[in-house]
Design brief:
Blueprint: E1 3-9, E2 12-17, E3 22-26, H1 40-62, E4 66-78, E5 86-98, H2 102-116, H3 118-125, E6 129-137
Parallel strand pairs: 5-6
Antiparallel strand pairs: 1-2, 2-3, 4-5
Helix pairs in contact: 1-2
Length: 142
């Protein structure tokens, strides 16, 4: 896996993945940023959410669950001192679908957390407290 980062001025950078996808990163205005893109730590948090969500959906599909939507909310706390690392992250999965089985949704979240999500497991090994919760919703009939 490869990526490149190119400075684009002030506190702004263009990050490009090895597969050719790009995203603009930027620092906060008080550090020369212009709010042109997410902060690098936000990207890290979003990467964790994407990794975990990918796992949960993959496991639920293999379990033949009729999922119509999966929304993951992440909330993180950071240390007050430099380096301002993540100290705690909570992931809340809102899974919508028809006749979803509680035990299978819970299993998917737990398997992601304990076995499959490389980002989550890596951050936990670095000392970040990561917690998970989930809820099941029925699709809106309209």
């Amino acid at each position: 896996m490869k990526a490149t980062i190119d400075w684009t001025g002030n506190a702004s950078f263009r990050a490009t993945s090895g597969t050719g996808h790009s995203v603009q990163l930027d620092g906060p205005p008080d550090h020369g940023g212009e709010n042109l893109g997410p902060r690098p730590m936000e990207m890290l948090l979003m990467g964790l959410g994407g990794c975990a969500s990918f796992d949960v959906m993959s496991i639920l599909k293999k379990s033949r669950q009729d999922v119509t939507a999966c929304h993951t909310e992440l909330e993180a706390e950071r240390a007050d001192a430099v380096p301002s690392v993540f100290t705690r992250i909570h992931l809340h999965f809102v899974v919508t679908g028809d006749n979803l089985k509680e035990n299978l949704v819970k299993r998917a979240v737990n398997l992601s957390a304990e076995k499959y999500c490389s980002a989550s497991i890596m951050l936990e090994k670095a000392g970040v407290e990561i917690t998970h919760s989930h809820e099941i919703r029925v699709p809106d009939p309209s």
